């Protein structure tokens, strides 16, 4: 790696912008970002961030690319780290196509996404590259394009970085890159036991992301409803049972800790609830799909998780169907005249 470190954040939303902002504090780092809906705003004014963990600041990326056009616009760049903080939902082909134009043999890929096995599509597409995984322990959201807020943390370091696979041809190189990345911010840390940390996070996401998305309530609002904490606890317990049957060692108090962590932190609006509110596709497969599949594999009953997954999929189908209803630009004036401007906007 040269003395300058080139980083590309793929998915410049809440998590990606915070991660990129922290890396950009190092004068030897050059941090660029790939954006989608917020591209124009970030390209013109960058990000403004307000965080509980690091205070407030702004982040002007070195370069800002538009998702789908990275290959064409960045042909001269060579990145040391590419951080994937896009959502793990829907068709990942356009993302992998974008990445295939810029990943070099020396590029380290870093996933910063929720769920289990989110590294698998990257491993398939880039079989010889080093892949690192990041567990994100913060609650954050992009409240307006380019305006990001982090209000909650889960009492650990914000970003835990580990090496997910033991089949990597050069594990020492992977560990060096993990350590180099983890040393870039005081709220970043290296972890050795990735599986355990992933399961802890999966249990939290299973219990809270489902119940908040389905009810439309944040963690504290939900806890005030009668019966809600039992439901959240039941989900955490089922996910915990799957983890134990899969050979993961966790504290038996973990399901109760899942409730306590949310009760004692600031109110959290989990990313799945944010997606539901913003009518965006939700990340269901890497959290609930994985758990249901793994439960069947290890012979554990997960009735509540199965029900939640089913309800969330129905909700997601409605969100996706709504998204795909788009009036072609050239027909817009005629359709507006027929239906009235407000009805078009409401859709
Ligand atoms: N928010 C949180 O508190 C936490 C989030 N996470 C995880 O971090 C990851 C990122 O979440 P978060 O930052 O909240 O999400 P955001 O929606 O804020 O940001 C995601 C970014 O990626 C872009 N994007 C999404 N899908 C694609 C795609 N298929 N191709 C190209 N760009 C894409 C989005 O564009 P567009 O704006 O157009 O949708 C947006 O710029 C998720 O896996 C989430 O589960 C983990 C812990 C906490
Ligand atoms: C831990 C939590 C709930 C923090 O926001 C999260 O991972 C998410 O939002 O998906």
From TrEMBL:
Protein's UniProt keywords contain NADP: yes
Coiled-coil segments: none
Cellular component GO terms held in the UniProt record: cytoplasm
Catalytic activity: (R)-pantoate + NADP(+) = 2-dehydropantoate + NADPH + H(+)
Keyword Mitochondrion appears in the UniProt entry: no
GO molecular function, one term: 2-dehydropantoate 2-reductase activity
Assigned EC number: 1.1.1.169
Family of the protein in this entry: Belongs to the ketopantoate reductase family.
Function of the protein: Catalyzes the NADPH-dependent reduction of ketopantoate into pantoic acid.
Protein name: 2-dehydropantoate 2-reductase
Organism field: Zasmidium cellare ATCC 36951
